[in-house]
Design goal:
By secondary structure, the chain is mainly alpha-helical. The protein contains 25 helices and four strands. Helix 3 packs antiparallel against helix 4. The longest helix is centred in the N-terminal third of the chain and has 18 residues.
């Protein structure tokens, strides 16, 4: 009989570790029915807990909760269930019992004959999670320090970092997180980076959950099936950390960052608006991202169209006025004449004069794509590649797949020394319908690649 119980427990433990909670529960339930002890009942309960069924978890735990024997794990899980069910007063009772049981077990000779010090030490994580679920951040830190000599799992250190983060002790959070082992905790670099930004006051404070990224709660994988799911995901501190870490990563794709940042601002409530406002004054945020932020803030009503918006550019604060531009037909003659004049100035070497004239066209009430394309070309000639890229990205969104725009973006990446991205854009160019001059320039570009 014992061999069968041991086999079921081993199988259940493997399923639990792999996140196969339903299978884990079946194995532990069978082992419990054969007479397995309280620890197996705990594992059966936690398998149900990770599936989000808190009432049933409490029912499974009933014999362990009623027992006079110390069982800190059972009471810690019960506390978390009760928090989820909105019964916080009861949850605190079980958290207090979990703490007392753990301390008692450290000196109870009978408990020490059943559990190794390592096995008992693993219970600190579940107790700290319960304290975190109740928002008792200082208690999490107190328990971490009090039981530091008994810690077995690196998650103790992670949870201490979360508690410090939620108390706005960002340096302390960084100190805890930097010592987590790799590669299992590789994501912690993002946590450290964002905690540093908070310490510098670059982004507004927000609460952080007591579980690693990739889970909505207790091991459930995040999935977005509705607008409500998306809004809930944007409210998670974990989501905010991962997105902000990407935004502040110099190697990240700007368009992808802009899309995700827009989601944080749109769905982040008051915090999202505050984030958008603060990022407009951050030097490392590109001009393109700031444009996307302004657009989103106007969409939310945080600013009105035409209102002066403070923004940091070139190391100095300026005021810009946002307006929705009307895109006009590419063949409109009066605008085409003005663009042809700019092109003549460019060919004559009067680059600065050409930039001034075409900038006035681009910044007018009407957005004329040929003018924007000429300005992007002039900016590339002057080496102002970030500003040129912003314009070309706007044009690409308006006219995806246009060969002239793709050519210019490919040339820009080549100018930056990134041949891989240049090849990516060049490979998408279809020269059909373009003149001989364009085809020759394309062949020349391809020769460099």
């Amino acid at each position: 009989m014992q061999e069968k119980i041991d086999a079921l427990v081993e199988k259940g433990s493997r399923y639990l570790k792999d996140g196969q909670f339903e299978r884990a529960e079946r194995a532990f339930k069978k082992a419990a029915a054969l007479g397995a002890g309280a620890s197996v009942v705990n594992n059966w309960a936690v398998s149900r807990f990770y599936r989000g069924d808190y009432e049933e978890t409490l029912r499974i735990l009933e014999p362990n909760l009623a027992s006079p024997m110390p069982n800190p794990f059972a009471h810690a899980v019960a506390a978390q269930c009760l928090v989820e069910l909105g019964r916080k007063d009861e949850a605190r009772v079980h958290l207090d019992r979990a703490i007392r049981d753990f301390d008692k077990g450290l000196h109870d000779p009978f408990i020490q004959t059943i559990f190794t010090r390592k096995a008992w030490g693993e219970y600190t994580v579940m107790i700290e999670r319960a304290a975190g679920a109740l928002g008792e951040h200082r208690l999490v830190l107190d328990l971490y320090r009090r039981w530091e000599q008994y810690h077995v799992l690196p998650e103790d250190r992670f949870l201490a970092g979360v508690a410090a983060f939620n108390l706005r002790r960002y340096r302390q959070a960084i100190s805890h997180w930097r010592h987590l082992p790799m590669p299992d905790w590789e994501f912690i670099g993002d946590y450290v980076r964002v905690a540093g930004l908070l310490e510098e006051g670059i982004i507004p404070a927000f609460p952080l959950e007591y579980h690693p990224p990739g889970a909505l709660s207790h091991g459930e994988k995040a999935s977005i099936k509705s607008d409500e799911d998306a809004e809930q995901l944007a409210q998670l501190g974990t989501t905010r950390i991962l997105v902000l870490a990407q935004v502040f990563d110099e190697e990240s794709d700007e368009r992808e960052s802009a899309f995700k940042l827009r989601g944080l601002i749109l769905l982040g409530g008051e915090w999202g608006v505050q984030l958008g406002r603060q990022l407009l004054s951050v030097a490392s945020i590109s001009r393109g991202l700031k444009g996307a932020i302004i657009h989103t803030l106007v969409e939310l009503g945080a600013y009105k169209e035409g209102e002066a918006i403070p923004i940091l550019e070139g190391g100095e604060m300026h005021e810009v006025k946002y307006r929705r531009t009307q895109v006009i037909d590419i063949l409109r003659s009066e605008w085409e004449c003005r663009v042809r004049e700019v092109r003549r100035q460019r060919e004559a070497g009067r680059i600065d004069e050409a930039i001034k004239v075409v900038s006035d066209l681009v910044n007018s009430e009407v957005f004329y794509p040929p003018a924007a394309l000429v300005l992007a070309t002039l900016l590339r000639m002057k080496g102002e590649l970030d500003a040129a890229y912003d314009l070309l990205s706007t044009l690409e969104e308006m006219m995806p797949g246009h060969p002239v725009i793709l050519f210019n973006i490919a040339a820009l990446w080549l100018q930056r020394g990134d041949k891989e991205r240049a090849r990516s854009y060049a490979s998408r160019i279809d020269p059909s319908g373009q003149g001989q001059e364009f085809r020759e320039k394309l062949r020349e570009l391809q020769s460099y690649l």
